[in-house]
Every structure is written in C-alpha cells, then in structure tokens.
C-alpha cells in the first residue's frame, strides 16, 4: 500500500499497480476480516472510556484553577488599588530592576533637563500628580488588536472609568463556567457598578461523536443588561428619516434608533439556539466572542501590567512568528481543512497543565 500525495487520502493498489479508490476510515474498517473488526470495536470502546477519564481530568483542572484563583485574588485586589490610586505603593513595593534600567535612568535625566528648560520659559503652574495609573485598562484595550477592533471613539470616555477586570470560576457542584466582571467607578453613562459576561463550558464527550473530544469547550455565553442614563447609550444611534405620504404627498421627518458599533455590545451577545440553525455571520460572531472571552481570562487579566507596558505584546508577536516558521506547512493544512467544513461556534480550553495547547 502506497500513499498518494494529497491531504487525507491514501490509495489501495491492486497487483497491476492501479489505484482503485481512496481509503477512508470506514472503507478500511469494512475491509477487515470479521474477527479483526470485532477486536477493533473493542478498542473503540476502550477509547471512549479514555475520553470519559480525560473529561474528569479537566473537571479537576477547573477545580484547581478555582482554588488558585482565590490565591491570586489578593494580589489582583492590590493591583486594582494601585491602579485606581486608593492605595499608594511603598518604596519597597516600587523597587524594580530591569534590563532596561540604565536606558530608563538616562531617559529620565533627559526628561528632567527638558522640564527645567520648560520651566524657565514659562511660569511654573502648580499641577497635581496624577492619581493611580490613569487610563490603565483603556491603554490595554487600545494596544491589543483583538480589543482595539471592538473599541470605538465613543467607548473611550466610558472605559476611562473602568477600575478592574476579574475572572470568577463556577463553584463546586455547579456546571462548569467562568464569569468576566468589569468593575466601573461611578460615571455619567450607566448605573451599573459591575458589568458581567458568563461563559458556559462543557467537559464531556459528545455521545454521537465521542472521538472528537479534545477537552472543555465554551458552548454558550450570557451578557447583562446595562442600565444606561438617558441619551448615553452608545450601542444605539438616532437617525432621521424622511417619509412621504403616498396620497397627500406631504413629507414628514421621523427619528428611529438603530444599532451602533461599540465595545459594549460585548454584553449583549448572539444567542446560540439549540432548536434553530444559526446563519454563517452569527456563527462567526459567536466564535469570535468565545475567543475574546477566553483571551480576557487566560491573558489579559493575569498579565494586565505587561499588556499595559507592551511587553506581553512583544512576547505574543515573537510566539506567533516562531509558530509560523515552525508550523507553516501544518497551518496551511489546517486552513485547507477549514475550507472543507463549517465554522462551529466553540472554543477549546487551552490551559492544559500537561503542556498541551488545545486550540
């Protein structure tokens, strides 16, 4: 039996050297002797049992994540206090030695000299030091491509009031899920102190396709209702439209509200209905939503300061380039596979402690 070049296809050769037809998994199995096929069925039953054990493994991973999230939280709370300026870090807490320290000190000297020159040119005007780290989260939104694509100019004044983003995991005994919490200070746009987005997950093999199981996947999400102040809802815009009466010919102007692009549409996601088939655009939008939620959970929240400074962005770019160089041919094959199938709105969990990346 020789392999014929081409993705996912092999050929069976007869004694004359002619290729009969491609070999698919079901065709190959059908060609087996009955006694061998019987043993293969036994192996498949073992494989399903392996998938069920793997599902239990991921359930325990989720519990471990929940346990360690409680250990991280005091550090994240302190991060929030430093960012908002409610607590000033001590001299000891501010000590940091980096490879760029000499460059930073030199740059600081240049800035000081420039400040002295500016002070000579104009009267010194008393100015208060900024509180905390201004626009911390907004800077992250602007810097990360996945988030900046959602960000609109009218969103930015609102996100200046964002104090913190937290991840909360479902409690023991509850269905697997995680919640993103966006904490806002009092503002002139909405009454909510916290906006939430819940991502529901599943960690069990599909009864109809048990061999497709590769770990937990996000299967649905729920947003929250934003209690907007009157006239401040940036997710809609008001347009004026002229209407002409068919009989009298008179013209009147009517106003109506239509959807408007905004990051805050993130809290009103497309709903996946088990009874109705989603159109392609909705599937794509939902798949994107799952990816963004996963990115907040796995990258943005745990490493916020590094996205603020841009260091995490450099790491991401280096990783992407390395993956592209090493897996160029494999990625091309994946793209070909995608062309053959439909986009499914699900996202596999990537936090496998065994070191495997699952998405």
Automatic annotation (TrEMBL):
The keyword Manganese is annotated on this UniProt entry: no
Primary localisation category: nucleus
SUPFAM superfamilies: NAP-like (SSF143113)
Any GO CC annotation of this UniProt entry: nucleus
InterPro entries: NAP-like_sf, NAP_family
Region (Disordered): 1-23, 312-359
A Pfam family hit: NAP
Cellular compartments annotated: Nucleus
Keyword terms of this UniProt record: Nucleus
Family per record: Belongs to the nucleosome assembly protein (NAP) family.
UniProt cross-references to PANTHER family, sorted A to Z: TESTIS-SPECIFIC Y-ENCODED PROTEIN (PTHR11875)
The protein's name in its UniProt record: Nucleosome assembly protein 1-like 4a
Organism expressing this protein natively: Gasterosteus aculeatus aculeatus
């Amino acid at each position: 039996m020789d392999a014929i070049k081409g993705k996912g296809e092999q050929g069976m050769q007869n004694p004359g050297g002619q290729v009969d037809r491609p070999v698919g998994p079901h065709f190959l199995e059908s060609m087996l002797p009955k006694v061998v096929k019987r043993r293969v069925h036994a192996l498949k039953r073992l494989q399903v049992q392996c998938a069920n054990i793997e599902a239990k493994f991921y359930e325990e991973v989720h519990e471990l994540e929940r346990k360690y999230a409680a250990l991280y939280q005091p550090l994240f709370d302190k991060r929030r206090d430093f960012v908002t300026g409610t607590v000033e870090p001590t001299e000891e807490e501010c000590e940091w030695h980096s490879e760029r320290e000499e460059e930073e000190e030199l740059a600081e000297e240049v800035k000081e000299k420039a400040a002295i020159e500016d002070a000579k040119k104009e009267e010194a005007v008393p100015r208060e030091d900024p509180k905390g780290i201004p626009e911390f989260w907004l800077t992250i939104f602007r810097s990360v491509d996945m988030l900046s694509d959602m960000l609109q100019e009218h969103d930015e004044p609102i996100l200046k009031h964002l104090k913190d983003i937290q991840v909360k995991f479902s409690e023991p005994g509850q269905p697997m899920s995680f919640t993103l919490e966006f904490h806002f200070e009092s503002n002139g746009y909405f009454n909510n102190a916290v906006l939430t987005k819940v991502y529901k997950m599943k960690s069990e093999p599909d009864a109809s396709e048990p061999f497709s199981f590769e770990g937990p996947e996000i299967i649905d999400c729920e947003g929250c209702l934003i209690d907007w102040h009157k006239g401040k809802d940036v997710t809609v815009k008001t347009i004026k439209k002229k209407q002409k009466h068919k009989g009298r010919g008179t013209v009147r102007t009517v106003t109506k509200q239509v959807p408007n692009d905004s990051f805050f549409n993130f809290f009103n996601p497309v709903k996946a209905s088990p009874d109705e088939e989603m159109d392609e655009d909705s599937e794509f939008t939902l798949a994107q939503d799952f990816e963004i939620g996963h990115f907040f959970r796995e990258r943005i929240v745990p490493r916020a300061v590094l996205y603020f400074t841009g260091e995490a962005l450099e790491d991401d770019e280096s990783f992407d380039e390395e993956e592209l160089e090493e897996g160029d041919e494999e990625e091309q094959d994946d793209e070909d596979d995608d062309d053959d199938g439909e986009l499914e709105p699900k996202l596999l969990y990537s936090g496998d402690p065994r070191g495997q990346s699952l998405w």
